[in-house]
Amino acid sequence: MSTPVASNRKVDLLLAEYGSSHLNKVNKSIHWVCVPIIFFSIFGLVRSIPTPAAFDQVPYLSWASILLVLALIYYITLSLPLTLGFILFGSIVAIGNEYFFSQGRMYLLIVSILTFVLAWIGQFIGHGVEGKKPSFLKDLQFLLVGPAWLMHFIYKKIGIRY
Fold first, then answer.
1. Cα–Cα distance, 25 to 89 (Å, whole number)
2. Given Cys at both, which of 21, 40, 151, 159 links 132, Cβ 3.0 to 4.6 Å?
3. By residue range, what is the domain housing residue 87?
4. Can you tell me the distance from the alpha carbon of 118 to that of 81, in angstroms, rounded to the nearest whole number?
5. Strand residue runs (E) in the chain
6. Residues with Cβ within 8 Å of residue 156, at least 6 apart in sequence
7. Percent of the chain with pLDDT over 70
């Protein structure tokens, strides 16, 4: 059963809507593993896209870093504490992807494709158990709400208002 939303803040409404299709314990557990992996793999897929020579003038500038900045702007519209958490999470994702990228663009691409497919298989298994379709099928912004939904549980546990 979903908890009633005591606020009409955009972030609370989004987290409640996302949470409404993630009530089953098995589905929740799968999401704790698969959501970060999917985010990591999407970043890797985008990082694998060749960049124009002009990008070489700025260290670590890539299509993926631009995507990360756009995601950060989205998070700023939701919540400053979640934005700070996203900066930490996004930094870990970027550093991890740079490691794989240093092994070669193709290596990163293969790792990203494999983890993306496996993590989505996990997600669909979780949603099969839940009996509800993934939220992003209704609205793509839920691909960014997923990490926030996980972070809000961490924040609640350690007493930080998100």
1. 24
2. 21
3. 28-47+57-158
4. 30
5. none
6. 162
7. 95
C-alpha–C-alpha distance, residues 102 and 6, integer Å: 47
pLDDT band at 6 (very low <50, low <70, confident <90, very high): low
Query: Tokens 């550093």 map to which residue?
Result: 95
Q: Please tell me the distance from the alpha carbon of residue 110 to that of residue 43, in angstroms, as a whole number.
A: 13
How sure is the predictor about 38, in pLDDT bands with cuts at 50, 70 and 90?
very high
1 within some domain: no
Question: How far is Cα 69 from Cα 62, in angstroms, rounded to an integer?
Answer: 11
How far apart are the C-alpha atoms of 69 and 87, rounded to whole Å?
9
Within a domain: 132: yes
Total Cβ atoms within 10 A of residue 66: 13
Residue 132 backbone phi and psi in degrees, to 5: -135, 145
Structure tokens at 17: 């809507």
pLDDT tens string 81-137: 999 999 999 999 999 999 999 999 999 999 999 999 999 999 999 999 999 988 888
Q: What are phi and psi of 144, to 5 degrees?
A: -90, -25
- Please compute, for residue 126, the number of CA atoms within 13 A of its CA located in the half-sphere on the CB side: 23
Tally the domains of the chain. Answer: 1
The answer to whether residue 96 sits within a structural domain is yes
